[in-house]
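User: Fold this; tokens only.

Assistant: Input:
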Amino acid sequence: MHGISDAQRRSRLVRRHLLAPSVRAASAESVTDSVVALHATDAATVFLSVCARLSEASVGAVERALYEDVSLVRLLSMRNTLFTVSSGLAPYVDAANARAVAAKERRTFLKHLRDDGNGLDAHWLAETEKETLATLTARGSATGSELSAAVPALRTKITVFPGKKQETVQGVATRVIRVLAADGLIRRDRPRGSWTSSQFRWTAAEPWPAREPAAARAELALRWLRSYGPATEADLKWWTGWGLGQVRQALEVAGAEEVRLDSGATGWVSPGDTEPEPTLEPWAALLPALDPSAMGWADRGFHLPVEYRAALFDRAGNIGPTVWWNGRIVGGWAQRADGELVWRLLTDVGREATTAIEAEASRLSGWVGETRITPRFRTPLERELTV
């Protein structure tokens, strides 16, 4: 069995994730395809992840791709998490993950409606969705609050988990909008605030062309291996949220090849992808919370020492902003309330690395400008740095 070392895995990561200056991309779409999907739970992550990999960082370029060209789209998909993918990949992600997520979202919401005991059912939901879509189509775009003001049914309140410890009264507007978005009937449009805002407007959309789910999973697995391989079955299972049987079927259909990792585990690569990766120039990067280069594997041991996890992750397993040097995570960074960018190294990386990190921090500060960034998921080190 061919072996691929941890050093080679780091070389692959830098080139394929466009992290060194010599391999940065010219477009937001190229960046997104290079990492397959961008975490979008925190709106700022998409912009920070893309601009870290662009030859010339540009908020405007990302906004155009998201809201004008719609060449980048947000989908509730892998692990029931919001991701941004290219429009070319979207039909495969939709069939491989988002359809199942949408069906579960609808089942869960209908159960809450039944449990409320006020006669709300699938027919009520269908009529409410129809009126919401008609209103949104007529307006062009609207916020959730604007839709609630225009559609009386969206102002309905229900009791969730009645009779249980977690019983609470909730409005249905957010759930109706979430179901419509999961079904691909509406999409997120420009937010009310800056590019860091998650207060999105909504606009009508067309569902994605149908793809056969097993074939779509194989296509998604193949693209993921090209960006993240070698990786284990456990890594792909974690990243996608698929069952182990689906993972193994996708790897087989994709023609994935087995390799041996330094840990002794069996890894997988895309067909024929076993040749050594040329080493690039020394490089540093400041990547945001939930960046795909840090969140792409279940086992990150080849680029993240286990002793750093307590400082860099929250209790739910979300990684915060990270500092990288030559393929390894070596620290974390944060932005203070006055806009100052600060970082802390968790190991001694030497003068060359420190100089390169300072240059990247200056680059990041330059394009962020007056914008203030606070990650949605706060980690111990990020909190310490902002005090």
